[in-house]
Amino acid sequence: MRRLVVLALLLTACGAQPVQQAASTSLTWAIETQPITLNPHLWAQNKARLLVFNQFDALVSRAEDGSFQPWLATSWKVSDDELTYTFELRDDVTFHDGTTFDAAAVKANLDQFRESGYNPAVAAIQLRAFDKAEVVSPTTVKITLKEPDGLFLDFLASPLAGQVSPKSLREAKDVRFGGPDLVGTGPFILDRYVQGQEIHYRRNPAYKWPPAGAGHQGPAHLSEITYRFLPEAAVRVGALTSGQVQVIEGVPATEVTLIEQDPGLTLTTALNSGTAFSYYFNTDHAPFDDQRVRQAFREAVDLDAVLKAVYQGTATRAWSVVGKASPFYDASLERTFGGDAAKANALLDEAGWKQRDAEGFRVKAGKRLTVRSVSAAPYVRDRRDVLAQAIQAQVKQSAGIDFQVKIVDQGTAQKAVDDNAYEIFENSRGDSDVGAALNLILPRDGAINRTRFTDPQVERWLGQASATSDQAKRKELYTKVQRAVVTEKAIVFPIYVPADQIAAQKSVQGLGFDPGSGTPASAYDVRIGT
Amino acid sequence: MIKRLGTGLAVMWAAATASYLALLLAPGDTVDILVGEGADTPEIRAEIIAEWGLDRPEAVQYLDYLWRLLHGDLGRSYQLDRGVGEILASQAGPTAQLTLAAAAIGVTLAGVIAVATAGRGRWLRGAASAAELVSVSVPPFLIGILLLSVFSFTLGWFPVSGAAGPQALVLPALALGLPIAGVLGQVLRGGLERALEQPFAVTARARGLTERALVARHALRHALLPAVTLAGWFTGALLGGAVITEVLFGRPGLGQIAMQAVTGRDMPVVMAVVLLSAAVYVTISTLLDLSYRAIDPRIGG
């Protein structure tokens, strides 16, 4: 009985004290995804991108129009053959451990990727063309490539090229995971990471080297920032509406109205860079080896109605494999396909799928018009399962197509790909330069070429676009690529452009999105207004 | 006693074998599964093949795996690039805190409600019974969300997340403890009421013992036995519930690690969590079996 009384006292004691309010220059931000690693060189999660540039800076940053701006590098020259990049560096930058940032540090960061097994994916893809880095003077570094690479600056602007103190790379207890002893030059200093709970930064008082285009100069406004990991969307929203956190990211469509109706809250959304969420058709075998069937599938879906029903009007329809936020997006593709059931039926009749079976599905030579999509459960997010069901109902009703949606474990999904036992592949990618994504998806040997489509012309264009840093030239080439795959060959059904959302208390200002990726920006410009 | 230990070891062996079979039978290449979404290089593949002995016959692999387990070697997570033992050790504390608090809440609430309502008026019993039924049948996820919306989002008494202090423990422990209180309460009350109808109760009343003293000193001991038998279920409910509760409340701990490992296909961690749960289960049920003797001296040694 005594224990009971103690418990009751404890409960009342807790109840009497209200939850502590944060001081005005500290802020708590609830985020959905925990970082797998805090080492920027090994970063791989777009959802964790917002953390990286608190602690680390890169040589250059990416502006909204796709161009590059000075950051730790004040200027750079690219040789005419596009093989040599010479960077002039700031001379007043120090790492959090007190060491100086200089050309030797840049070289050490690049050379780190050469360590066997350190980050093999980056060594093989982003740094494929990297030959060597040379220290010309403490503030000048010369990087030589083996072949021209139009995506090299994009790599230098990415979290992967966040500059880590060479001293801490040598001395950190756990280099692969990172943590407070793996330091950068960023506006915040990581001082606490509690797995499953939170990550805490304090301001770097010496900071005076923000990227060009930042909202202010000098140290960050906030003296401290805590990111709480709250994977459950409803809990994040509740924590925000009750004032326990000031900012959240990742607001699902079902919670948007609740936040919009609250006068004390703001909601901002930005489209992600990279590719749109799309259905890619497997052109290797029937029925999608016939272009008419591919077009018919797109025409059979009234996508506007589907998106409105599934995402309550918060989704942005995609018209190209390239996302709308990309500078290479070809807007002329808009309204060129989709939503014409009569046309879908005419195309299928023409392609020989004339009979119907007892269930109303089209049949040709005794075989039902069945298409399968096999996706791995861990990658199904954003209500894409519900979306697939809505599309399934539409293609059945309007054109008699049997669309089978399977959500399975990773091994089974991989097996379906290996066995070529699928007709539709669902994918979106968040690369800050969409060219990197297209290079994986479209070429014959691309790592995720699931369309099994090959076109030497398209590959030539992609190759040319990757080998130049001339943005106008690249736009022209990527426009050709988009027209080929979306209109002429119809190998892809673009569906919606993934987006990120930030909801916050009205008093929080300076929140924004990284122009390069469309994901939430770092906390450097964030402040609490009055 | 020796028989109990033997059963415990057999359960552990079965758990180890089942998780090993799951690894072998899962679709896809075993090396692929063990790598998960971690860095996939020829060196790491060679390391995995060496560690798991995948180049040897399956029977040898299996014996080798058991041998390593016997030495407390739980393997390595290739995704987090750390030893599995180290990962579990760092996360065991918060989970122990949560489950012990939840168990304390569950047992205390069940005891108080059962003692207060056993053999009392129809209304009181009805109300308690209804509350118990609700707490048992509503999923823990929903209980958690409800507790959060009332006590955290609306009243602001408790923080939503973290393992920052005793305050942050209250809601998750309640969410996890309530379903246990529900089941345990029903069983305890049933036991109490049966005991109060026994001849010894009549004798005790005749000696002038008050009803309260009768319940506390005599009947409770009788009612405890069926409740203790539920311990197995109880442990399982706590461990399973911890996964949901930790993720919902954003608390560190084993459940949260298990969740991450399952979605991230980090097989070595998943297997270790299965084994650890089995070990906890076996330990607790063995201890409780031994406690039968303390509760009921009629059960001889």
UniProtKB/TrEMBL annotation, chain B:
Domain ABC transmembrane type-1: 92-288
Gene Ontology CC annotations of this record: plasma membrane
Entry's transmembrane regions: 98-118, 130-157, 169-188, 224-249, 269-288
InterPro entries cross-referenced by the UniProt entry: MetI-like (IPR000515), MetI-like_sf (IPR035906)
GO molecular function, one term: dipeptide transmembrane transporter activity
Domain of life: Bacteria
Keywords linked to the UniProt accession: Cell membrane, Membrane, Signal, Transmembrane, Transmembrane helix, Transport
Membrane topology: Multi-pass membrane protein
PROSITE patterns membership: ABC_TM1
Record's keyword annotation contains Repressor: no
Signal peptide: 1-22
Subcellular location: Cell membrane
Family indicated by similarity: Belongs to the binding-protein-dependent transport system permease family.
PANTHER family in the cross-refs: DIPEPTIDE TRANSPORT SYSTEM PERMEASE PROTEIN DPPB-RELATED
Protein name (record): ABC transporter permease
Organism: Nonomuraea glycinis
Lineage, broadest ranks: Bacteria, Bacillati, Actinomycetota, Actinomycetes, Streptosporangiales
Gene: ddpB
